[in-house]
User: Fold this.
Amino acid sequence: MDRMIYVAMSGAQQTMRALQTTSNNLANVNTTGFRADLDHFQSLPVSGGASVSRTYVTAESSGPDFRHGGLITTGRDLDVAVDGDGFFAVLSPTGREAYTRAGDLHVDTNGFLVNGSGYQMLGNGGPMALPPFEKIEIASDGTISVRPVGATAEELVVIDRLKLVRPDLAQLTKGEDGLFSLGGQDSSADASVHVVSGAVEGSNVNAVEALVKMVSLSRQFEAQVKMMRAADDNAEHAQQLLSNS
Assistant:
């Protein structure tokens, strides 16, 4: 009975972990540039001095899903999306360079160009600060030009260029904040990466697939809980038989 209940308990625990991952993906179905997390179940034998008689299960991360999300046209001058492969470089909360696909930009109260999550966008010289402007243009190569307040309609001043990178996806790790990093290393700017102005990239989470997976995992969890209850009932009945004998 102990074998049965502990195997069922292990399965229920790992199913809960998988449910958390799926729930987080579903919660970010409308998050700009979000990359879904993938996981899988793996069977592991219980090692010990005796022969292997039980197999537990563990939920393992398969890493992020790097498939592209759909482009959403907004018409905003400050909205940009990476065209194809690549990432925007931003300043992470730890002060290190990190990478994201979220290009829903705005200027904060200090004049820095930040995305919707508040991360400062990096340019050739670090975080990008913009002067007061009446118009802004972001070229396909990431170059940012503005028409300063009071300037003529034809006057555009080049401020900086967004740092666009194309790191090796196999080396990227995703943090709890949704940002990607290269293990403390900085990626070089890649001139072949281009952006689309007036649009943002949506999440790559498939809401229908995520909902179906949640239902499947929930039913699986319920079955494992029933198995634990059955093991407990069997143990109680066995104890009664021994007491009456």
